[in-house]
Design brief:
Layout (H helix, E strand, L loop, with lengths): L8 E12 L2 E12 L3 E5 L6 H8 L7 E6 L8 H5 L2 E5 L10 H9 L7 H10 L13 H13 L5 E5 L7 H18 L2 E5 L3 H7 L2 E6 L2 E7 H7 E8 L12 E7 L2 E7 L3 H6 L3 E8 L2 H9 L7 E3 L8 E3 L6
InterPro entries: AAA+_ATPase (IPR003593), ABC_transporter-like_ATP-bd (IPR003439), ABC_transporter-like_CS (IPR017871), ABC_Transporter_VariousFunc (IPR051782), P-loop_NTPase (IPR027417)
Organism: Rosistilla oblonga
GO molecular function: ATP binding; ATP hydrolysis activity
C-alpha cells in the first residue's frame, strides 16, 4: 500500500472544484469510498458524476483540490493507477475492427494481474466468441466485452459510469451479475454511477447523491431505510399548497391525499405540530428518496446531517437541477 493512502479508503477526494468556461461542474466535493464497498453515485443529468469520475481515472487534472485513487495521484502516475483499476462507461468506444480475442489479448498485455482462466469464464458467461468482430456484435454484447476486459485482471477498484445505459434488460442483468460475483468473490471496491436506481439499490451498500456539482447527501442503504420513511396523509384544512410538516420533503399529491418522505424519528412530533391525518406509512425506497430530494422546494428546506464521512449540508431545490 502506498504510504500516503488512508487505510481502508480506495478513493479519497478532498475539496475538488472544477469550472468549464465559467460554469461550475464540481463544487468543493469531498468523498471517501471505503475499500471493499460497492458505492453508488446517483444524480440527475448534469449533476457532475461523470466529471468527478474523469478526475478519478486521470482524464482531468485536479486544479482545485486533491484526488487520490488507491493512495496514488491518477494524473502523476496514470499507468500505476490504471493498472489497478477497471473502467467501463456508457460510451460504445471499443475499437470495432478488432475481434473479441484480439481485444482480450491486447488488454492482457496491459495488466500484469490478468487472469486467463477468469477471462475464459467471462467469455463463456457472456456467450462471446473470440473470433467475432466487435462491429458484428450488438451494443449489449459489446458492453459485455467491455466489462470482460475491465474486470479480467481482477482490479482493486472497478469504476462503472452508466454501464447499463441504453442496454436491454438481459444485458443489464448479465452486467450486474458479473459485478456482484466480482465483489462477492474478491472483495473488490466498486464505484457504480447510474440513473437506474433499481440497479443501484440491488448492488450497492452505500449511496451518494450529487446535485449541481456537489455531494448533498451520503448514506448507507441500511441507514437510508432506518432514517426515512414515506407517509401518506390527508390535510384537514387544504388550501391547495403542499402541507407544511417539519422534517418532511418531496410532497406529491394524488386527489385529496399527499405523500412525502420524512425523517422517521421526527415523524410523531411533526404530525402533532400540523393539521394532518396520517393514513399510511411505508418503508422508503431509493427511488422515492431520490425523487423526493430532487423535488425539494426552496420554500421547504431540510437540513441534512451527514454521517461521519462529511459535514452538514443544507438542501434546497435550487441545488437540485
Amino acid at each position: 500500500m502506498n504510504a500516503s493512502q488512508t487505510v481502508g479508503v480506495a478513493v479519497d477526494v478532498q475539496n475538488l472544484s472544477r469550472k468549464f468556461r465559467g460554469n461550475e461542474a464540481l463544487r468543493d466535493v469531498n468523498l471517501q469510498i471505503p475499500s471493499g464497498s460497492i458505492f453508488g453515485l446517483v444524480g440527475l443529468n448534469g449533476a457532475g458524476k461523470t466529471t468527478l469520475i474523469r478526475h478519478l481515472i486521470g482524464a482531468l487534472v485536479a486544479k482545485h483540490g486533491q484526488v487520490r485513487v488507491l493512495g496514488q495521484d491518477p494524473v502523476a502516475d496514470p499507468v500505476g493507477v490504471l493498472r489497478r483499476i477497471g473502467y467501463l462507461s456508457e460510451e460504445d468506444s471499443l475499437p470495432q475492427w478488432l475481434r473479441v480475442g484480439e481485444l482480450i489479448d491486447f488488454s492482457k498485455a496491459m495488466y500484469p494481474t490478468w487472469d486467463d482462466a477468469y477471462a475464459a469464464e467471462l467469455c463463456e458467461m457472456f456467450s462471446l466468441s473470440r473470433t467475432s468482430r466487435l462491429q458484428s456484435l450488438s451494443k449489449g454484447q459489446r458492453a459485455r466485452a467491455g466489462l470482460l476486459v475491465a474486470i479480467a485482471h481482477r482490479p482493486e477498484l472497478l469504476i462503472l459510469d452508466e454501464p447499463s445505459s441504453g442496454l436491454d434488460p438481459i444485458a443489464r442483468s448479465d452486467i450486474l451479475e458479473a459485478i456482484i460475483r466480482t465483489v462477492g468473490e474478491d472483495g473488490r471496491t466498486v464505484l457504480f454511477s447510474s440513473h437506474l436506481l433499481d440497479e443501484v439499490a440491488r448492488v450497492c451498500d452505500t449511496v451518494a447523491l450529487m446535485s449541481a456539482g456537489r455531494i448533498v447527501e451520503r448514506r448507507t442503504i441500511e441507514d437510508l431505510q432506518s432514517r426515512y420513511c414515506e407517509i401518506i396523509c390527508r390535510e384537514n384544512f387544504a388550501d391547495g399548497d403542499s402541507p407544511r410538516l417539519p422534517a418532511a420533503f418531496g410532497w406529491q399529491r394524488s386527489g385529496g391525499e399527499w405523500s412525502a418522505v420524512v425523517e422517521t424519528q421526527r415523524l410523531e412530533a411533526s404530525l402533532l405540530s400540523g393539521d394532518l391525518q396520517l393514513l399510511n406509512r411505508y418503508e422508503i425506497t431509493l427511488e422515492r428518496w431520490f425523487t423526493a430530494r430532487a423535488n425539494t422546494s426552496a420554500d421547504d428546506p431540510l437540513a441534512i446531517e451527514e454521517d461521519e464521512s462529511g459535514p452538514q449540508q443544507a438542501i434546497a431545490s435550487g441545488e437540485i437541477q
